[in-house]
Amino acid sequence: MKSTITLFAALLLAPLATLHAADAPAKKPNIIVILTDDHGWADLGANGVDQHIRTPNVDQLARDGVRFSRGYVTAPQCTPSRAGLITGRYQNRFGVEQNFDPMRSDVVTLPERLKSSGYVTGISGKWHLDSGGPKKDGEKVFDPNLAPHRQGFDEYFTGGMQDYSASHALDGTPFPDAPREISKKGCRVVLQTEWALQFLKRRAAGTGKEKPFFLYLAYMAPHTPLEFPKPWIEQVPADLPRERRSALALIAAIDDGVGRVRQQLKETGQAENTLIFFLGDNGAPLGRKGDGSLNLPLLGQKGMVSEGGIRVPFLAAWPGRIPGGQVFEHPVISLDIAATSVALAGQPNAPELDGVNLLPHLTGGKKEPPHETLYWRWVDQASIQEYPYKLIQLGRDKTLLFDITRPEGEHHTRELSAQHPEIAKRLRAKLETWQATLTRPGPPGRLQRLGHFTGAEILPNN
After folding, report:
1. Of 340, 371, 440, 400, residue with least CA distance to 110
2. In whole angstroms, what is the distance from residue 123 CA to residue 111 CA?
3. 350 is in which domain, residue-wise?
4. What is the pLDDT of residues 64-76, one digit of tens each?
5. Could you tell me if 111 and 203 are in contact, meaning their C-beta atoms sit under 8 angstroms apart?
6. How many domains does the chain have?
7. In whole angstroms, what is the distance from residue 427 CA to residue 383 CA?
8. Residue 178 has what pLDDT?
9. Is residue 367 part of a domain?
10. Which of 362, 396, 430 is the last residue of a domain?
């Protein structure tokens, strides 16, 4: 059983809650987190990188709010990145290092925190946090205690392609025997959008509109398998590579879903009291395992703590609260979503959360950067960033220092350890201190992905 705040503890925390509530609006806002899957930094129209990407609705979201030019996630892979996002803590603190590492069931999630403040919570799409450990006989192992309805979600429609575990049907009908396993034909993105829209409709009907809501819309796209949904595929140039055509069509379907969600909020009068975050879970995979998405001009890909693996499309919008048209240049990270949400729910500051409440930084209340230092550790790599410097540790010994002011800054010809040994030494010491606090303390494992780093020219190929 997860720990709860006792009456005595609540009384002790009451003064802190009062202070923290200064950041919270009089009416608790609705919160929507839209997460894409293996979606590269280049594939957002507002980033201005690729001529073929078309994301008018997501670009409008950026114009209505803020585009984080240096938005990061906590890992270059699905499960650990999602664990960090949904808990607001570096996932390495509770033993999630890579895919199939089980998340501890006693770790408090963001929906659980928000439920304690009266929120109705829902998830549509990819969960990916119910692993029971490594595969057995080639099959995934699931832990029922990590299912969404046992991790804080009141309503749910979780799956990837056509098979889902659901509390409600796509037409909004509740299942009395939930969770019910259902299969639906159609584009995965459209299915996940349709269920999310029904969730929003329920929140605007009857007594549902009296409570704030949290919706986690986690699209499993443009992640493989490739898919070519109509009508979006018909809008993609036919001469592009097959993988690229799939990615562009799926991202266009996501963009359409974002537009439909925002229109639904407007029609039900919820738009002005809804904060929306939009981000990817990690960079795009490249090469033979690629999904067609692009990370350019960043170097590297999924499975690397270079910019191409952990820097993602990242936006936030809240009409009337966050001034529109902003481009926020300071680094932010997915951990900040939980910290911001908890503050807006009027809860006391939770010191175990690793993120920062971004709202004061976006509304002019604070001018300084939200973060001095950001950290990563994933399998055979680790990294620390104190902008503009970033130190990458490969395996147990090799370290690289870069100035990441320029997007291609991690190229091996720009490695700075020899020029700035004192900076490299200081960052290495801070990274070692942080890694010593993790559930598996110490440096990353033996380097397995040398080819990734030479292929991206982050290391010389010699």
Report:
1. 340
2. 10
3. 10-362
4. 999 999 999 999 9
5. no
6. 2
7. 9
8. 96
9. no
10. 362
Q: With the C-alpha atoms ordered 359, 363, 367, 369, is the resulting torsion angle positive or negative?
A: positive
Query: Does any domain span residue 420?
Result: yes
Burial class (CB in 10 A: 0-12, 13-18, 19+), 369: middle
Query: Is the separation of the CB atoms in 37 and 281 below 8 Å?
Result: yes
Residues 384 and 353 in one domain: no
Q: DSSP assignment of 290-348, as one string?
A: --S---TTS---TT-SSHHHHB--EEEE-TTTSPSSEEE-S-EETHHHHHHHHHHTTPP
Question: Quick one: 307 and 223 in the same domain?
Answer: yes
Which of 310, 241, 444 is closest to 40 using CA atoms? 310
pLDDT score at 132 = 80
Is the bond preceding 179 in cis, omega lying within 30 degrees of 0?
Answer: yes
- Considering the domain architecture, whether residues 358 and 393 belong to the same structural domain is answered as no
pLDDT for res 207:
64
Q: Where are the beta strands (DSSP E) in 173-233?
A: 180-183, 213-222
Residue 254 domain-assigned (yes or no): yes
459's tokens? 């290391």
Residues 353 and 389 in one domain: no
> Exposed/middle/buried for 461, CB within 10 Å: 0-12, 13-18, 19+?
exposed
What pLDDT, on the 0 to 100 scale, is given for residue 459? 95
Query: Could you tell me if 52 and 94 lie in one domain?
Result: yes
Integer angstrom CA distances of residue 410 from 82, 138, 413: 25, 37, 8
Token pair recorded at residue 24 = 């919270």
Q: Which residue has the tokens 């509530």?
A: 21
Q: What is the pLDDT of residues 375-399, one digit of tens each?
A: 999 999 999 999 999 999 999 989 9
Which residues are the active-site residues?
A: 78, 128
- Considering the domain architecture, whether residues 205 and 143 belong to the same structural domain is answered as yes
- The candidate with the shortest Cα–Cα distance to 278, out of 224, 322, 233, is 322
Same domain, 335 and 421: no
Same structural domain, 200 and 257: yes
Does the pTM surpass 0.90? The reply is yes
In a domain, residue 269? The reply is yes
Chunked into runs of 10 residues, the chain (462 residues) has average pLDDT values of 43 43 72 98 96 97 98 98 98 96 94 97 96 78 92 96 96 96 97 98 82 97 97 97 98 98 96 97 95 97 98 97 97 98 96 98 96 98 98 95 95 97 98 97 93 94 79
> What CATH number has the domain bearing residue 37?
3.40.720.10
For the chain, give the percent of residues with pLDDT over 90: 87
**pLDDT computed for residue 24 by the predictor:** 57
The residue out of 330, 362, 394 marking a domain boundary is 362
CA atoms of 215 and 213, how far apart (whole Å): 6
Neighbours of 100 (CB within 10 A): 15
